[in-house]
Amino acid sequence: MTMKIPNEPDFETIYKEFEPIVRTKLYPALEDAVQKANLQFLEWGKEAPDRQLFPHLVRYFAKENINELGLKVEMENNEEVEETEEPDCKFNFLPNNGLSGSWKGYNFRILMSDHGELPVPASHRKIDFYNQQLPLPLLFETPLESLPEYIPVNVLFLWEVDTNYHFTGLRLACPKTGGKNRASVSAYFNELIPHPATTMKEEPAQIESEEEIGITRKEPEGLPKLSNDIFK
Amino acid sequence: MIYGERIRQARELTGFTQSQLADRIGANQSFIAHIEQERRVPSPALLDAIAKQTGFLVSFFEQPPLENFPLGSLSFRARKSSTAREETQAYQYAKTVFEQVGIMAHGLQMPPLRLPKTQEKPSTAAKITRSELGLSPNMPINNLVGTLEKAGVLVFSLPLTLEKIDAFSTWAHLISERPIITVLSGKPGDRLRFSISHELGHLVMHQAIRGRVSTVENEADQFAAEFLLPSEAMRQEIVPPVTLTSIAALKSRWKVSMQALIRRAYSLGVISNRQYRYLFEQMSSRRWRKEEPVAIQVERPQGVRKMIELQYGGVQEYATRMWLTTEKAIQFISPYVDKDDLRMSPYYNSNTVSYKIPTTQLQNHSLN
Question: Which of A32, A111, A193, B342 is the most exposed place for a label (fewest CB within 10 A)?
């Protein structure tokens, strides 16, 4: 089933919806997961990470981090996880198949970016996802008022690395079409999310009033003429 | 009598070499050298020209020069990394402000001094200092400069930007012995807070320098790290996942640079050497080592401004009493006031980004 698209989705609107969990949960979780994956390869004595294994490690560490940051993702080893701090944010258990979940009526998947582009979907479920086809259970179970203002509702978070496998950023993309080859993939938007640090501000300090410095006037006695005496 | 030392002070403070000053007033370098050594006496016209070029009044050159303003940390911190002329300019600026404060302090009640002197190791010295200053042992220091000023430390702010010098400090005799921290302009607030804390470490621990300069500098850095980022608090707050995002959040709370926080996390063993290197590589690739995100406001000292307000009420009287042109006086006070206040001043000329003073407008300009 393909959803009717009444409006063109835009990055600002959808990012605003996700911002509360992206800034404090998803971004740091993925930033650190890439770091840990790199360090793991160094630990194993490898000069460079293995291209195939790297995304799997990132996914594993990202899950660990997401759990530590208060959301709930099932681990592959059925390890017990804490209750979630954000009941509206649900992750699906997809062994060996990226990370996916839902938030405020949107479905999201977390994937490795393909040099800044959306990766070519490798399964029928991903192709459906790219083509904005809602899974039937979600369609029937979600009350209409909970669906986001903008349809389509499937979005991608794409983490990216440089040639050294160092984390360079996280993208938010909204796929439009997807098939089995590069040419079939298109998106409504695919934009880099600002690094959370660039939007942080100094916490306000308590500014004491100038009077509290403790400099006050003595009884008037006239100012001395400049001489070295006053410094002795 | 004209004091050669005063002419040297004015020249060096303005940043001129003898040749540069000579060129500007139509004399030669050796003549300036002779005046400064008091082997020759300048004509009134030449003295006027020197005064005009340096921004001091001729009467300044008639005042007996101030002795005994120690170089303090400038003597061992800056030498390795800055030019001698820059160092001298900063020193002469601080010496002149110190002299002004000495004059003003005689009519004023200064806060009692509450700064310890100790031979303890840096981490202990930092804890003692926090306690003496009435600071919580494990909370961020919101207003560092204000806290120091209330504890009787004189904090000078110079309208001077030098690439390699952020701040320097010394103990000097002003009625009684006082610690002085001089802060230069043009650096981010978080960096200056660390530099000020580094200087505080010198004041607390290094009355007499023992050992190598690098050791002394290292101790002052350790002091600053513990003073601003107490180990106990850091062990609680730097928790996995340690990323640039989490470090930036700590910066906004503790008002210390991300680079200092990463170093602190490493020195406390919270992150590994590899993680430390990875985070710095991330900082470099984002070009954040030169310009970090999360701007921290520069803390502005209030003491000097307060003294001028109490004693003179405004710039005009301050300028006259300190033998300065009004333009020069505004330069001296500019680090203590908002730029917007200065722009409101009838003396401020935004086209030249300098402080032009029409002589017909020598009215009293309040600092408020």
Answer: B342
The phi-psi region of residue B255 (left if phi > 0; otherwise alpha if psi is between -120 and 50; otherwise beta) is: left
C-beta atoms of B297 and A202 within 8 A: yes
- Please indicate if any CB of chain B lies within 8 Å of the CB of A215: yes
Residue A89, both tokens: 């944010």
Distance from the Cα of A182 to chain B's closest Cα (Å) equals: 29
pLDDT digits (tens, 9 = 90+) for A111-127: 999 999 999 998 898 99
Q: Is the pLDDT of residue A91 over 80?
A: no
Nearest residue, CB atoms, A226 vs list B63, B107, B247: B63
Residue B282 CA to residue B54 CA, distance in Å, equals 46
Give me the helices (H) in chain A, please.
Answer: 11-21, 27-43, 53-68, 124-130, 136-141
Q: In the 8-state DSSP scheme, what is residue B139?
A: S
Q: CA distances (Å), B329 to each of B317, B344, B356, in order?
A: 10, 16, 11
> What's the rounded Cα separation, in Å, for the pair A53 and A32?
17
Please, what is the Cα angle at B300 between B228 and B260, to 5 degrees? 30
- Lowest mean pLDDT, pick from A29-33, B31-35, B191-195, B313-317: B313-317
Instruction: Residue B9: count other Cβ atoms within 10 Å of its Cβ.
Output: 25
Q: What ipTM is given for this predicted complex?
A: 0.78
Element (H, E) at B154: strand B154-157
Task: Determine whether the interchain pair A231/B68 forms a contact, defined as Cβ–Cβ distance below 8 Å.
Answer: yes
C-beta neighbour count of B278 within 10 angstroms: 22
Q: Are B145 and B305 in contact (CB under 8 A)?
A: no
In chain B, where the domains are located: 1-65, 94-285, 303-364
CATH number of B1-65: 1.10.260.40
B266's enclosing H/E stretch is: helix B258-267
| Beta carbons of B241 and A28 less than 8 Å apart | yes
- What's the pTM? 0.84
Place of tokens 């607030």: B189
Name, in order, each residue with C-beta under 8 angstroms of A58's C-beta and a sequence gap of 6 or more. A30, A33, A34, A37, A112, A159
Residues in chain B: 368
